[in-house]
Amino acid sequence: MKYISTRGQVEAQGFIDTVLMGLADDGGLMIPAEIPHITPETLKEWSKLSYKELFLQIFALYTNQEIPDEDLKNMVDKSYASFRDSEITPVNKIDDSLYILELFHGPTFAFKDVALQFMGEFYSYVSKKQNKIIHILGATSGDTGAAAIQGVRGKEGIKICILHPHNKVSKVQELQMTTVDDQNVLNLSVKGNFDDCQKIIKDQFADLEFKSKHNLRAINSINFLRILAQTVYYFYAYFQIEQGDQPKKVNISVPSGNFGNIFSGFLAKKMGLPIHKLIIATNENNILERFVKTGEYKPGDFKSTHSPSMDIQVASNFERYLYYFLDQDAAKVSAIMKKFQDDGKIVFNAEDLVRVQADFVAYGASNEQCLELISKYKDNSDYLLDPHTACGIAAYEAYNGEEEICISFATAHPAKFNEAIEQCDIKQEFPAEIKNLFSKSQHQLVIDHNKEDIVRELEAFYEK
How many CB atoms are closer than 10 A to CB 56? Predict the structure, then answer.
């Protein structure tokens, strides 16, 4: 298995070098040169595996045996030792047509833990093997930062800097990042939105001199390791569904902002997992919904919502989908991404739109609808949704058909977004780990959205 760039100007890489590269050196995103196909017979065998066993089987198809089996198993065991449920990502049946995949049982109570706790172990492993300091740089709309920091805090050979938009994440998300006092962690609270933070990150990874000088590594979903780790729970969730004698079509509804999580589902489907509909759930920052419905990919006006982790206008992983949509033609991808940079939009014709709609359906939930669904499912099913999960449920209600089952992803614990829960007149009990955050002091630098100032802080931190 070799890895190539969506823009075609990077020499084929092995697995470890692909992960270390993060953003491809030509500005594209790394993807496998070929996607392995899983037969129905293998799927049947996999359906009996535990989560960690399934993880090892899937990764074995992609790692080129660059990591010895025992080393990989040790990393997986360490990664999921802190999860509060033995199934890692348990499935909760709501009724005969709806199942909820709970992805919030990791240390920071969000789905990002599933990939990022493993990524922390991976970077620590590589740092020791190569005897090199690794400098991790990432941007977050809330959950990525906390999960990444938790995955590497205190680890020898690793420093991490996370940019988050000032006052545009939930209080719990902010505290999970900024109450960490380890010397290898820097939090920059940027006066701007997530897209501003993300652009700075991409610019620094595109600066190959800066990237090489500081041994810069990525934790955002531009890194293929994040995508691959997330495919595991698509397979695992599918295998947990009670199908009976007459199997139904299985849809999956995914709260989506940066297109990484839903692309993991697209990858799982291309591998052979028989998903019927991949449902993109968004909030009022609905660039992905507008793309699927109209064929126009164009950022709109930024809106702050009850689901801040999806308050994103430019979805980094969209380019990976574009590569496959364009029949793996890297030259066409490069041309379209250049046009997007120049014109600020991509427009697909009617014929192309039919193909897009064969891959996805999409629904954007309003703030009001989000709160209504939180109240509805608490009252009717005694299940408390966080606002991102509520967007997923809104999309499920819009698109799940008769004789279909939907697995909707619960991407965060509701305690992380109590601001929205309180508006529903619901009082929830905080887990002790979250409750304790409010008594801790914070460590962050509030900084203007100024690239030069941010780079200066990065240089100082990495050179300590």
Answer: 17
Residue-by-residue pLDDT tens, the chain, 464 positions: 999 999 999 999 999 999 999 999 999 999 999 999 999 999 999 999 999 999 999 999 999 899 999 999 999 999 999 999 999 999 999 999 999 999 999 999 999 999 999 999 999 999 999 999 999 999 998 889 999 999 999 998 999 999 999 999 999 999 999 999 999 999 999 999 999 999 999 999 999 999 999 999 998 889 999 999 999 999 999 999 976 666 789 999 999 988 999 999 999 999 999 999 999 999 999 999 999 999 999 998 889 899 988 988 889 899 999 999 999 999 999 999 999 999 999 999 999 999 999 999 999 999 999 999 999 999 999 999 999 999 999 999 999 999 999 999 999 999 999 999 999 999 999 999 999 999 999 999 999 999 999 999 999 998 88
159 belongs to the catalytic site:
no
Burial 313-345 (b: 16+ CB within 10 A, else e): bbbbbbbbbbbbbbeeebeebbebbeebeeeee
Supply 33's token pair: 């040169």
Measured distance CA(64)–CA(113) in Å, rounded: 25
Give 70's DSSP letter. H
For residue 441, what are its two tokens? 């002091």
Tell me the domain boundaries of the chain: 91-109+225-423
Residues 6+ apart with CB under 8 A from 354: none
The residues near 285 (Cβ < 8 Å, ≥ 6 apart) are 257, 300, 302, 303, 305, 310, 311, 312, 313
Residue 119 CA to residue 110 CA, distance in Å, equals 15
Using DSSP's 3-state secondary structure scheme, residue 188 falls into strand
Class of domain 91-109+225-423: alpha beta
Whether 273 contacts 235, CB under 8 Å: yes
SS3 417: helix
Choose, from 112, 168, 211, 277, the residue flagged as catalytic.
Answer: 112
3-state SS class at 297: strand
